[in-house]
Structures are given as structure tokens and as C-alpha cells.
Amino acid sequence: MGYRNGNYAAFYVAEPFNASALKAHATRDFCYYSILRAWKGRDVSFPFNDSHGTTYNVRDNSLWEVTLKPRLRERIRGSKNIVLFLSSNTVSSRALREEIDYGINNQGLPVIVIYPEFDSTASLLSSGDLKQSVKNLWDKLPLFRDSMSNVPTIHIPMKKDIIENALNDNDFMLSSKTANNYYWYKL
């Protein structure tokens, strides 16, 4: 296994993917990913190492089996974890299913799940467990729901300091991951 230092960001974008400014940015989950990139752009010490920047970009007319799928897998193989954006806008697309299936079930990558519609750890919890409304979002991506018990997952809100803690947390990195379960930070 080669050196893995990337964070593989998984998020829904409409298919076929179009990297033009308007089309990609019109998908909310892509916008959340762009926020992480902006934080990194403003502060080089922010611990997000974007795996999508490690291989050259693909064209809108690229073929799935010949170019797109192999490129996703190459990026995942260079990653230490998956950062999954899961929101009410998420759709179980072919690319997102491939990223989750290959990343979790083939590569064993821990997952940092960011819920952009929640702004604090307390907003995710009820009676010491994740709220049912959070768990219901797992149904938007059944492959993730059914596979997440295979790796450690941490469930966090879209809050910069919490995301930074999760990205720095050795329990959610491939080489030092904790036991398979789902976790959240204590209040």
C-alpha cells in the first residue's frame, strides 16, 4: 500500500457531471465541498488534503468505465479517509455509490460524515444518540447505510472547528483507525 495522506471528499453532483462553474455549483453538496476547499485556501494549516487534486481533471464527455471510475478509484487509493457530505439534497448517484462501495468495502476507509444542515453536535443528538432525522438521511444513500458498520464513522455537523478536529483525529484515518462503529464528539 502506498502513502495515503488524502481526504477523499464524496458528495452528490448531478449526472452527467459538468465541471462548468454554473452546473457543478448548482448542486448543494458540491457547494459544501467547495467550502472545505475555501477554508484550506485561506489557511494552509487547515487539515483538508483534497484527494481530488491529486489526479488530472476529467472532461464532461469522459466514459464511465474507461476514465471516470478508474480515476475515482485512483484517488480513493491515495486517501486515508472519506469525507462524506450527507444532506437532504443527496441523491444515490452512480458515482457516489462507487465511491462509497470502493472506499468502504474494498479499501476499508473510515468515514467522516458531515451533515451540512446541522450546525452543532447538540443539533445531531437526542437522548445521547444520533437523532432519527440524522439516521433518516442514511436512507438517501442505502449503500452507505448498509456498509458503514464495516468501518469507523464519525458523524459531525458542518462546523469548521469540529470538521478540523475530525480531520486530525487518528481514529478516523486508515493506518490508525478505531473499532468499526459510529461515533460523534461529546458535547
Which H/E pattern describes the elements?
EHHHEHEHEEHHEHE
Q: What is the strand content? A: 5-15%
Strand order of the largest sheet: 1-2-3-6-7
Specify the helix fraction band.
25-40%
> Judging from the principal axes of the Cα atoms, what is the shape?
globular
Computed CA radius of gyration, to the nearest angstrom? 15 Å
The count of helical stretches stands at: 8
Give the beta-strand count.
7
Uncertain spans, ≥5 residues at pLDDT below 50? none
Distance between the termini: 36 Å
Largest sheet: 5 strands, parallel
What is the SS-derived class?
Answer: alpha/beta
Task: Estimate the mean pLDDT confidence.
Answer: 89
List its traits.
7 strands, 8 helices, single chain, 187 residues, 39% helix, alpha/beta, five-stranded parallel β-sheet
Describe the overall structure.
The chain has helices at residues 21-25, 28-42, 64-77, 94-106, 121-124, 132-137, 142-147, 160-168, and strands at 6-10, 79-85, 111-115, 125-126, 129-130, 153-157, 182-183. By secondary structure, the chain is of the alpha/beta class. The protein has a five-stranded parallel β-sheet, with helices on both faces. A hairpin with a 2-residue loop joins strand 4 and strand 5. Helix 3 (64-77) crosses helix 4. It is globular, with a radius of gyration of 15 Å.
